[in-house]
Amino acid sequence: MTLYEQLREKHRTFIYHSFEFLKEDDETVLQFHFSMDGYNFCPRWKFPFDIPVDADNDLISMCAFSLGMAELVSYWKCACPPEVEVRCGELSDWQKNWWKKLYFNGLGEYFYRNGISTDLDSFMNIRTVGGTTVGTQLSACANAGKGVLVPIGGGKDSVVSVELLKKHGADIHPYIINPRGATLGCVDAAGIPSEKTVGVRRTIDKTLLELNKQGYLNGHTPFSAVVAFSAELFAAIKGLKFIALSNESSANEPYVDGTQINHQYSKSTEFERDFREYCEKSFGGYGRCPEYFSLLRPWSEWQIAREFVKHPQYFGVFQSCNLGSKTDVWCGECAKCLYVYILLSAFLDDETLVKIFGCNMLEKAELADMFDGLVLDGEDKPFECVGTRDEIRLSLEMAFRMRGAQSPALLRRYVGYREIGGFNIPDLTKFYDDENFVPDEFIYLLKGN
Predict the structure, then answer these.
(1) Burial bucket for residue 303 (CB in 10 Å: 0-12, 13-18, 19+)
(2) d(C-alpha 41, C-alpha 7), whole Å
(3) Among 14, 51, 173, 433, whose CB has the most other CB atoms within 10 angstroms?
(4) Are strands 27-36 and 39-41 parallel, antiparallel or unpaired?
């Protein structure tokens, strides 16, 4: 038996017991309770503000319950029990299927990297038992909210969203999970008053980390779905009208050649469409709950980079390297660092780039295999949030034309591939993805560029 099969045999049922709001000192706590054969998991969210007395409590309860559904997969995946039992809320058959689709597709990379062969029908069964806390639907009502919640991750994409919304004159409320130097620095560089920031802290239960140390399964989960449901919750608490994500068209591309496995599934257009439908059917629709959309969906990553370099006040503070996130540095060794460096090398000179990254990443010949995964057809893309090969090739072409004979090692490697393979270098200057959900009042910001 494989480890996956052994764990499923040992742990048959995963239970979602409850969610509750608590008060601790001057903070509000949202705590969940999951269990699996004697192991208890209690992840928490803490935030330094109260739920207003006139808040839509039915909507907030449904958002909180749903956030628990998004959280549970991170704990379920350590043993993949075949049964998931929900005891604190009812789910319609449509909702159960919705969650199964999210889990299955969002765990595509996890299944692939753990050598797990399964299918949508058999990997999990969801059942509800005696749930009375929240209903399966909320009726529509007028939403008097205003303002835009903008999730800030510290990278270039959310910076571009903020700058576009500033141009519109929007009332921007930065949303930061576990605030750190880069996220707070970007808000400060944007000139947004600190009191506008919705800063919350998410805590992973240590029991999960202990099980991982013992050899239980681990891997990538659809974290952006957690961002989506938590953003709905906090935007509802704050009485805001919109949630503007910064996911681009490039997030739709598969990562493993010949499959639909996508590291960025919960950033894809498919998930965005599904999530909006969930809000319509479960949260009373966008007459009642804050409207979720990705402002940058019409654009490619190349276009986002072109816009980002117009705002040099962020060069010294932005950072999107996962390995260096705790210390707010670019590690200079991972695929994410290399990818962002390549994009920006199309527009910035080496001196500026070295000031940002601490090194010239295109000189690092030891990253050749990683580079090939970004550039070449038929290679698996590195499992990081990176763009399409067309965007990467265009950026490399522009970088080479800027540097010419003085090009560093990886640029010369690209030129060698281009001469052999005859890459088609696309023109992305007027790229526009029509499959987007940007509200009419904001769409001119994308079409105008």
Answers:
(1) buried
(2) 17
(3) 14
(4) antiparallel
AA letter at 51: I
User: What value does the CA radius of gyration of the chain take, rounded to a whole number of Å?
Assistant: 22
Q: How far apart are CA 7 and CA 9, in angstroms?
A: 5
Identify the pLDDT of residue 444.
Answer: 94
Q: How far apart are CA 226 and CA 400, in angstroms?
A: 39
The Cα-based distances of 426 to 147, 154, 302, 441 in angstroms read 37, 29, 11, 30
Q: Is there a contact between 149 and 175 (Cβ–Cβ < 8 Å)?
A: yes
- Residue 79: φ, ψ to 5°: -135, -10
pLDDT tens for 89-134 read 999 999 999 999 999 999 999 999 999 999 999 999 999 997 654 5
What whole-number distance in Å separates Cα of residue 234 and Cα of residue 46?
11
Q: Which residues contact 76 (CB under 8 A, 6 or more apart)?
A: 14, 34, 36, 84, 103, 124
Contact by Cβ (8 Å): 244, 294: yes
Between the alpha carbon of residue 401 and those of residues 99, 195, 404, the distances in Å are 48, 45, 5
Q: What is the dihedral of CA 192, 438, 147, 68, to 10 degrees?
A: -100
> Which residues are within 8 A (CB) of 208 and not within 5 positions of it... i.e. 6 or more apart?
41, 74, 75, 78
pTM score over 0.85: yes
Alpha helix ranges (H) inside 107-205: 108-113, 156-168, 181-190
The structure tokens listed for 354 are 């070295």
How far is residue 440's CA from residue 239's CA, in Å, rounded to a whole number?
Answer: 21
Lowest-pLDDT range of 4-13, 231-240, 287-296, 364-373: 364-373
Quote the tokens at residue 295: 């402002």
Over residues 283-295, the pLDDT tens digits come to 999 989 999 999 9
Q: How far is CA 301 from the centre of its chain?
A: 15
Q: Residues 6 or more apart from 254 whose CB is under 8 A from it?
A: 260, 261, 262
**H or E segment to which residue 46 belongs:** strand 44-47
The 10 Å CB-count burial string (b at 16+, else e) for 182-201 is bbbbbbebbebeeeebbbbe
H runs (alpha helix) in 107-144: 108-113
Calculate the alpha carbon distances from 314 to 74, 167, 180, 183 in Å: 33, 17, 15, 11
